[in-house]
Amino acid sequence: MARPARPVRLSPPTWLTAGLKPAPTPIPWAAVLRASVALSAPIAVGLAVGQPVYGALVSMGALSGVIGDTADAYRMRIFNIAVPQLFGALGVTLGALVFGHGWLAVAVVTVVALVSGMISSIGAVASVSGLLLLLNCVVGAGLPMPEPWWKAPLLLGLGGLFVLLLSLLGWPLRRAAPERAAVAATYRAVAELYEATGTPTYDEQRHAVTASLNQSYDLVLARRARQHGRAPHLVRLLAQLNALVPLLEAAPAAQLRVRLIGPLPAAIPAAVRELADAVEEGRTGTPVLDLPEPERPAEKAVDHALRYAATVVHKAEPDPYNIDDRLGRPAALRVRARRAARAVLLSEASWRYGLRLALCIGLAQALVSLIAVPRSYWVALTVTFVMKPDFGSVFSRAVLRAFGTAAGLVLAALVLAEVPRGWWDVPVMVVLAALIPAFSAKGYAFQTAAITPVILLLSDMLNQQGFDLVLPRLYDSLIGCAITLIAGYLLWPESWHTRIGDRLADAVADTAAYVNGAFSGDDRTARHRARRKLYRDLSTVRSEFQRALTEPPPTGPRAAAWWPLVVAVERIVDATTAARIRVDHGAPAPEPAEVAAVERELRELSDGLRSTDTLVEVRAELPGDETGVLAPLRQEVLAARAIAGPDLR
After folding, report:
1. Cβ distance 221 to 209 under 8 Å?
2. What CA–CA distances, in Å, run from 110 to 123, 187, 491, 596?
3. DSSP 3-state of 519
4. pLDDT of 332-356, one tens digit each?
5. If you average pLDDT over every residue of the chain, what do you get?
6. What are the C-alpha distances in Å from 242 to residues 123, 125, 238, 279, 509?
7. What one-character DSSP code corresponds to residue 199?
8. Residue pLDDT, tens place only, 146-169
9. Residues 6+ positions from 561 with CB-CB distance below 8 Å
């Protein structure tokens, strides 16, 4: 009997459509208002003084500031907006100097692309700085700028400073409010973690806590090298943040306790929520806790951690010399600058990305120099946005860029065709600018759709082409996406032979070291630092895998097959922490041979991940005390070794 034919799949694959689903994020209304004012006010001033081109350039600089304003803390905003603006001013200066010089412009923009790509590997601010350096260089080389040469960078810089000024308006009244709100939000995330113990949402909530904790540390410690010990409000917030560490360490033990005995008392998450309110309101005094009497080691760990956190949260003046950031004090600025320069110049990944970006930009610039059609800077702009690897998958971004540009061009066509030029540009920009922060959080395609009509409107003010801009820009975007897919993706084997296995192998090796350190006499501070670093690294690995899931075959399916192993490694870390907490609160310590056996299995798993692209099931033997504290950890290790995946080679 003939087998029934398999149904034909008509829907596109998940890796292709994942980016077209809007993320469920709230609208940042403050950022929406800032963007509307920052981009429309310069246009109004330019029209009022009879210099619409100047107003458009200031608004274009403000657009860069709006895109770069991704921080919450005021001191971080100064850094995140001002530093990239300096690179943007340098970029437009270089571009304007070679405008109309043919192959010289191609060479200069290509070299700038190489430098931009290499410095992007340093960090988040350097990445935005490299982006603006290249973007403004491309714009300067593709559009005529007002003379003399210093006017364009000055006007663009004024736009960025205007955004910075709008961002800092609340500083005198809300100086520490963003940091305090972030720390309080982390406490609430921990409360939700304890509520999720014993439920299928526990792992998801633990990831949310890790992300919230990372964000809070980044905000509070942004200027710790200069202000540590001299800013009492930051010292207190750091102490309150560090007081969460014992609570987080006790959570895996509480999760194990719930599995064996039953749900936690509701008073525990309620007490954590009360601490969150105290942090946000800045309350001090004697804490009052109504907690059940603990009996087992896990319950004692949670009770001790809660009481310690309550004492620290309500303490008015913590000792500034007893505050540790759990990741170690930062090196001096000079040392960090030297390390960053060495990493840029000697890193293979830095050169690899810089060369890929330079190749794509060079091809784009050469193409628009050779073909006499009304297109110039938009092709290179498309390449620049799509080729940002820290923004997501290059392949999926090229596809999303095409969709987003098409949607944005529809809106731009309506504006350019129906709205008369002049003062009508101001209310139109108020609306279009508001869409940028509102849509950016929803996904890359949505951000592209919001930015496209804004850039087209500003470009029309500079070259007065009107509706004739629309179709050429669509062609430019498609050409830029094609260049990126071919020269920046398909020609580089690393794009479609993923290196996620190496990153996961590093995380497994670090987990093995953490297991050893947890039971070999490391002091408490060293364990705290190791655990914080490991969770932060695992968060990065998870992000890398989520990015790889949006790649086409074979990378996407391989990442999907390896995903359960990522989850298994996170559970191993949790089980190790739970075992250590139980020992600290009265449970018998494991034998050194048991610890060594677990560490050996993890190191073998790490070595195996480095040597293959295919998951192969391993039957491991881990004898030990089935009633001891390491029994749950051995089960998690055995589960990780037993994960098998299809042959995807």
Report:
1. no
2. 22, 48, 18, 53
3. coil
4. 556 666 766 776 677 777 788 888 8
5. 78
6. 24, 26, 6, 13, 26
7. S
8. 888 888 889 988 998 898 888 877
9. 615, 645, 646, 648
